[in-house]
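About this split. The held-out portion is used to measure sequence recovery: a designer receives only the structure tokens and must propose an amino acid at every position. Recovery is the fraction of positions where the proposal matches the reference. Here is one held-out target exactly as it appears in the evaluation file.
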């Protein structure tokens, strides 16, 4: 009798999983290794001292912070960590800022963030076959492609580079791919694949997650003292705060007392200065640096030409990837809009480049290839990397923008898209 009851219970559970779970919602995504259908709240003090926890979420289909139905999405933004923006909350990314600006100015924009931390154009190309092509009713009109920085890091055979370009459980040869989880990178195993399937698709796991999450939220109260995962070792409870009512400013005061003597300011690493990682260090760097060059002067042009000559094979490969990415986008039924990237290690000020001229030379060579490709193919390009001037507090390291910098990018792209032939106000 017990066996019969157990069998009936199992049958009911299986039926419930099939009816209420997501196992048959998008079976084409079963091989996809992107973390999906989850939300994580945290403080990220090593980057920003916040008054409220940040939210990093991806929907069932893998889009960052998405609240739109698939059929409503008319713009997809594709890029690496500078688009994914793991250090910002869902509504703080440049894609969210861009959508907010467009909507406020009457444009019918519904943007899906398809950025993947650590991905290059190789991964963007593969995304169509292993990810986007399996999403039912997804028919975007435009694809914003934000590329450049990761392309400069591809050396030799692209397959030998450590990028998150193949977002499937196993590669083409059948070997396990890397598993890019929350704070960990490891090889996939059969158990980890099964675990991911259950966490994404199971209705019972979803109920457990909701219940357990609510209990944790009640217990912690989202007080900073519980989740102080700082770049510097967080002081133990009771050292800098003495009661349940301890304030966030006390943690900030404690951090400001930390010695910064072992940190190289001009490295623009994750240095905690006045409550903002990196941004304070970069501000200090540009305040003290004497390095600059005429943006349109002969030396800069000669250095870009010299770098391009010495790296013509890598740049030609980049152009071929742009061609393939453009073709994939058009085959998908969307128009590509390529966007060049800047770096935080230099700044454009009028007709001069200030800071790391070498970093500018390298990225400018790739950005020039992108712009030349667009002109040759009669494609739309936005030269953000050359046109947008950044300010103090816009970057927290040499590549990634803060909330302030991301908002600047969003506003700039908003103006470009509205004044061009792309979007029209309703």
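Reference sequence for scoring:
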């Amino acid at each position: 009798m017990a066996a019969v009851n157990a069998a009936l219970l199992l049958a009911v559970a299986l039926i419930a999983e099939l009816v209420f779970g997501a196992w048959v919602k998008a079976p084409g995504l079963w091989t996809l290794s992107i973390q999906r259908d989850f939300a994580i709240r945290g403080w990220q003090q090593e980057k920003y001292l916040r008054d409220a926890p940040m939210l990093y979420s991806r929907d069932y289909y893998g889009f960052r912070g998405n609240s739109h139905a698939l059929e409503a999405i008319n713009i997809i933004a594709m890029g690496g960590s500078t688009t994914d923006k793991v250090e910002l909350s869902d509504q703080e990314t440049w894609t969210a800022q861009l959508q907010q600006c467009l909507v406020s100015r009457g444009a019918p924009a519904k943007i899906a963030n398809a950025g993947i931390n650590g991905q290059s154009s190789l991964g963007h190309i593969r995304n169509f076959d292993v990810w986007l092509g399996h999403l039912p009713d997804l028919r975007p009109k435009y694809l914003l492609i934000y590329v450049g920085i990761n392309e400069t890091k591809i050396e030799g055979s692209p397959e030998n580079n450590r990028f998150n370009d193949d977002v499937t459980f196993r590669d083409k040869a059948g070997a396990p791919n890397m598993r890019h989880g929350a704070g960990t990178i490891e090889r996939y195993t059969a158990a980890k694949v099964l675990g991911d399937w259950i966490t994404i698709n199971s209705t019972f796991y979803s109920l457990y997650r909701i219940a357990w999450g609510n209990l944790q939220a009640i217990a912690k109260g989202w007080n900073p003292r519980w989740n102080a995962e700082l770049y510097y070792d967080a002081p133990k409870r009771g050292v800098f705060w003495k009661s349940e009512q301890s304030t966030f400013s006390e943690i900030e005061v404690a951090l400001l007392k930390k010695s910064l003597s072992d940190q190289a300011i001009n490295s623009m690493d994750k240095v905690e200065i006045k409550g903002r990682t990196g941004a304070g260090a970069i501000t200090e760097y540009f305040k003290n640096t004497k390095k600059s060059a005429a943006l349109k002067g002969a030396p800069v042009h000669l250095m870009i030409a010299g770098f391009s000559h010495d790296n013509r094979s890598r740049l030609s490969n980049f152009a071929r990837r742009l061609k393939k990415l453009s073709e994939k986008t058009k085959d998908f039924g969307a128009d590509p809009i390529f966007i060049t990237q800047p770096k935080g290690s230099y700044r454009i000020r009028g007709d001069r480049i200030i800071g790391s001229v070498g970093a500018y030379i390298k990225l400018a060579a790739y950005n020039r290839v992108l712009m030349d490709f667009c002109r040759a193919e009669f494609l739309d390009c936005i030269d953000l990397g050359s046109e947008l001037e950044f300010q103090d507090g816009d970057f927290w390291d040499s590549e990634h923008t803060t909330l302030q910098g991301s908002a600047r990018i969003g506003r700039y792209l908003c103006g470009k898209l509205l004044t061009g032939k792309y979007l029209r106000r309703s």
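Annotator remark: Residues 221-277 have pLDDT under 50 and may be disordered.
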